[in-house]
Amino acid sequence: IQTTGSHTGGIAGILRSSGITHAEFQGSITTAGHFAGGIAGYVYGSRQTISKVRFQGQLTATNPSSTVGFGGIIGGLSGGHTGTDSPFCPGGCFPATTRITAQDKVQKGFATSNRNFHLSRALVNGAIKGGSKTGGIVGHVFGPRLKENTHSPEIRQQIQLVRNNAQVTGTSFVGGLMGYLQGGHIHSSENTGLVEGDSAVGSLVGSMRASSRLNDSVASGHVTVKTHAGGGMVGEVALLQAEIDQIQSVLWKSHTFLTIERVLSTADVTKGPEATAVAAGVGLLHSDRTGLAFAK
Fold first, then answer.
1. Alpha-carbon gap, residue 240 to 137, rounded angstroms
2. Environment class of 215 (CB within 10 Å of its CB; exposed 0-12, middle 13-18, buried 19+)
3. Which secondary-structure segment (H or E) carries 248?
4. Which has the higher per-residue pLDDT, 168 or 16?
5. What per-residue confidence (pLDDT) applies to 24?
6. Burial class (CB in 10 A: 0-12, 13-18, 19+), 111
7. What is the rounded CA–CA span in Å between residue 143 and residue 5?
8. How far apart are CA 88 and CA 182, in angstroms?
9. What would the pLDDT profile of 176-233 be if each residue is shown by its tens digit?
């Protein structure tokens, strides 16, 4: 597949309200656009399942300096919202002035039952070469939890039992599993592929943000970071007030947390001559507010 457009996938370009199971794509995908994946370019995830899928081949950005969202399985993943664009989920979020009512939950895709998206039993082999927010499994994950009251459900992107063996190369926010993770839960997963990037580079996740969790996973894919924030587990962990405010303005209320638990890394981390914030675990851990939880 060769294209200059965005939202490119080996099986689906944009996936809404439907799942994929028992599927495989073998071959090469080359694009100059945003959001490209070996299985799906962009997924608006809501009560969907993608499982037992495999990508084997080459996924390449022709202009990595200006592209966003490349992943061996999914390029971009958001929480199934509709409405106007936002920096976090292009084409997929509510306007900042919208309050989500009970009627909205039905009409706009927020039912009162479990709305989780599930990605499981995914395997990637080959090479992923993208720009910003590039991951062996998913490039860009945005799916913060929505809790209007104590009785409302949680909306989260559940990623489990996935494995990446591909070499992953990008610019910023580059991870063996996820490039950029905000509002998702990764567990029981593994990366063995080499990971290389300029900044925020991790063997499992490039950058973890508000409302995210990583647990019970293993990293052995070696990491090379050229300039800043490289880690054998996660490149950077950040809980920033400005981002939290943006999330809450879009989704009205969102529980904010960030944890890493029971994660093992045997990955070597190689840094460039002038690289800073490099560690075997998390390269950079920072917050401009209280409430950052990091569990060993």
1. 25
2. middle
3. helix 241-251
4. 168
5. 97
6. exposed
7. 24
8. 9
9. 999 999 888 999 999 999 999 999 999 999 999 887 899 999 999 999 999 999 999 9
| pLDDT over threshold 70, residue 121 | yes
Q: 233 Cβ partners below 8 Å, 6+ apart?
A: 202, 203, 204, 205, 214, 219, 260, 263, 265, 267, 280, 281, 282
Note the pLDDT tens digit of each residue in 124-139. Answer: 999 999 999 999 999 9
The pair of three-digit structure tokens given for residue 296, joined into one six-digit string? 């060993």
CA 238 to chain centroid, in Å, comes to 14
82-92 pLDDT, tens digit per residue, is 333 333 344 44
CB 193, CB 136: distance < 8 Å = yes
Q: How many CB atoms lie within 10 A of CB 289?
A: 12
Q: Which residue has the tokens 């070469």?
A: 129
The single residue listed with the structure tokens 């979020």 is: 93
List of residues 6+ apart from 161 with CB closer than 8 A: 120, 121, 122, 188, 189
DSSP letter assigned to residue 108: T
Give the residue carrying structure tokens 């950052």: 292
